[in-house]
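pasting for the record
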Amino acid sequence: MSRRALAALLAVALLVAAAALYPWRFSGDGLSGRFGRHLAGAYGLDLAVAGRTTIALLPVPRMKLDGVTIADRGGAEVLRDAQLRVELRILPLLAGRLEPSEVSVNGGRIAIDLGPVLPGQPDVSVQAVRNTVEGASRRGLRRLIVTGADLDLRRGDGTGSARLKEVNLVLAWPGPGSRLDFAGSASWRGEAVGASLRVERPLALLAGGSEQVDAKLTGRLVDVLASGTASLTEPVLFSGLLTVGTPSIGGFARWVGAPWSGPDLDRPLSVAGDAVASRRSVDWSQLRMKLGADSLDGALSVRGGEAPSARATLAADRLDLGWLKPSLARAVGSWSNGRWSPELASIGLDLRLSASDLRMGPLSLKDSASSLLVAGQRIDLSLLRGELEGGAVKGRLSTALVEGTRTELKAQFSADGLDAASVLVAAGYPAFLSGKATASGTFEASCGRNRSLLRQLSGRATLTLGRGDVSGLDLAGAMRQPEPRLSPPAAPRAGRTPFDRGQVAFSLGNGVAEVLEGSLEGSGIRASLQGRVSLPDRFVSLRASGTNPADAVSGRGGTVVVDINGPLHAPVTLSSVETAPAEDGGRPASTR
């Protein structure tokens, strides 16, 4: 070949290569129309291109379309205002067909209608995905890439919707017999989350069989890991290892919009075990739960839908619930002021809990069994058994919202053989009282909204004490002190009053506890108690009167009177002595 012929051939080759490398732009609908006809025939999608179409042949045949809108056969938009980058299969291209091997979606908004959920029938979205994936497999679409798009998920029947922003994903499927791999990220309610999925045989799964799947969802507030067998047909959609966790219960609750969130709930929670999942339920027959530093074992069942609910039976060697005290205090404050949170009761709950050592701050309940039931507008909390400071305790609290406007409360408790001093110390109070205590009581209240529940509280309670003493109060010494003595809250108190038996009976009405009977008996003292305690106002007004039995028999001595008045957290005491009658029959002398 001559030099001129070789040079001409090289020039032609360079021109062809340059033409193949150069991106050719078209403003008409010729190329986009041919590609649109392929989408309509293969996937039932209608393509509209508002911008330009660009095509290049090297290094791989590719096409770019600007201002793309894609709609389904019903006219509903699936993709809007996006840019499409399409890599074309070479052999169909040589035959004049534009068939994609890879599609990239940049920007825009993707809308997916999952279809209505019909009882007893397969999900419409499953059938749509099955048809689309099978069609893509037959036509050689190996990869789908999405960058910087927004995704709207909704159901046509209005049962749910979600919007994901900044969606980035890669879906790779080399061939019909190959494994499917998916990885992606998005932002939901201001939090970035990532997801991955691996399916060994996608076509077998779409055909109704069971296949091995591995899935993961990660984010700042949630971690989900699933590894097992999956099926797209009812009743079982997944069976295998399922782990769900969050570093902050309160943070997760605020993220998903749950009403029971608060800074005191910001502690980690994780659930792991073999699970079975259906369309609207997840059941762990055996699980390990980590709550903060504590571990629990048992079973858990979660139901979704219009009436979400959870049922759990859990056991722990040690469980510290002291972090719940602020939430309980807020709940008690809301109920006492007549404010009810119906959103909390909108979630059904059946929790059975047992613990060898259940702690609520300094209080320690041994060998306890309790239950919490939430159904409709009713909450029942029961302590079936428990050992507290050497004694046995049990009780029940029930609250309900009646006809949406009226709150009702009922409570009862009993305790036997408690060490009174240890209970007071564990509850954060000074150990001013000792002895073995037996107590019981029943209470109830009913009031409308914006009214104090405590001011409507009524009931009865009794407290009986065995051999012990009252610290900081020396009734025998006070009888020998003729002058009145004022003891302010900050003043140090000395002395003690031993007794063999003590008893107090209260009657509660409109939130005020009235002492029906109060007595204290010992070898050197006999005392009685009168007065009242206002729970809504947190105010106490009591009077204790004591005598020496031996002096009473001989006609000598006097009666010591102790008045206790003021706020519950800091009352003021005033003691005085009424002397015995004089021997000449005159009127008794008194120091008051």
